[in-house]
Amino acid sequence: MKWPTNNALLLLPGLLFFLLIPGLGIVLAMWESVRGGGVFTFEHYRELFEQDRFITSVLFSLTVTVVSTILSLFIGLGIVKAFSPLLKETRHKLLVWIPMLVPHFVWAYLVYLLFNQSGFFSSIAGVMGWIDDRSQFPILVQDRNGIGIMLTYVWKEVPFVTLMLLPVYATLSKGYKEVASLLGAGPYQTFRVAEWPFIYPVLIETGAILFAFIFTAFEVPRLLGVTSPQMLAILAYDWFYSGNWSDRPLAFASLVMTGLGIGVLMWLVLYFTNKKRMHITKGIGN
Known about the structure:
The protein has helices at residues 7-20, 22-33, 43-49, 52-87, 90-100, 104-115, 120-127, 147-171, 174-182, 187-215, 219-224, 232-240, 248-285; strands at 35-36, 39-40.
């Protein structure tokens, strides 16, 4: 049997799967978000932005997502920059690979066991005499500031950032650093001139992936979050399963708005990082 050589035919199974399963769900969600009283309307979107609960949820989701993403990128970059020679060896790579195998909700449960007021660190603080009662231990999980959620995502996503940056540092030529040093550049200038142009596109793409994932996440905020403020996925879930049927279109509208926003963000990231890569490639070629 001869396999088809046309690229479009090779992509057909994947396209059919997307169109029939997630694609159908997206179309139905969009339809439900603009249907009201048997007519086509954008009333649900207007009502959505009049909801203080929605605005609070958006701001809270952005705060948790931005802080978690930036901390993960900085810590992951620091680890790769400091330990890249060691991480080239398989036995050291396992220290990064193993956390990637653990689901997010497991990490969330570990954070809960370690950081809640009756957890491991609270007990250690009591034994050491730092606190007299467990209630004196700071509230770090199921808190209104989302600290437990951010701890979980930083802990879980730093290995992902490390794995994304490792190939860049593995192929990074030492010649650029040597030339910068010969010209009198300090450590910061050497990093900015010889490393940053190469890691910048990967760092931005990794940050966009983390942003999209954390902003739309459900299981970790469900386990470690509070009833108010809520992440957007939790708010949409509550609207969808509430006893009030008039809230269900709001759930669909919020999901559609989130999907469109993430889609635009990813397109912009791909556009600008591809331009940056082309610029770097031309520079190396010249």
